[in-house]
Specification:
By secondary structure, the protein is mainly alpha-helical. Helices cover about 80% and strands about 0% of the residues. The chain is built from 5 helices and no strands. The chain has helices at about 1-35, 35-45, 50-70, 75-90, 100-125. The longest helix is centred in the N-terminal third of the chain and has 32 residues, at about 1-35.
Length: about 140
Amino acid sequence: MNQLCELTRHYGPLTGRILLALIFLMSGFDKITGFAGTAGFMASKGMPFAEVLLAGALVFELAGAIMLIVGWRAHWGALLLIVFMIPATLMFHNFWAVDAAQYQNQLNHFLKNVAMVGGLLYVMAFGAGPLSLDNRKT
């Protein structure tokens, strides 16, 4: 068990950062390939300047995800993603304002996002871990 714990301490933070960042990378690339459709969806939700906000969201998502994966300034990468997540969660997964047919799905997405913010807060608090650019040997 001690050996498993040591392996987890060494490789767990890198694996966790990759798994946490994966959803943001995929979402960012989906937004790039479907830029017009995503901007239209955002506008339909009442967001002004949807294309400008979408460009900003892309920067936050992709930069934050890459920073997390490589472990370079991971605290800042996690913060970028948290800043992106809060308004996105409140605007697009507002389970309290949807009809009964959409309630459970939106609640699940809301709680998933809350859990991801929790993981990002963990990175902000404890850093990127041993296998990261932040902790490379000089």
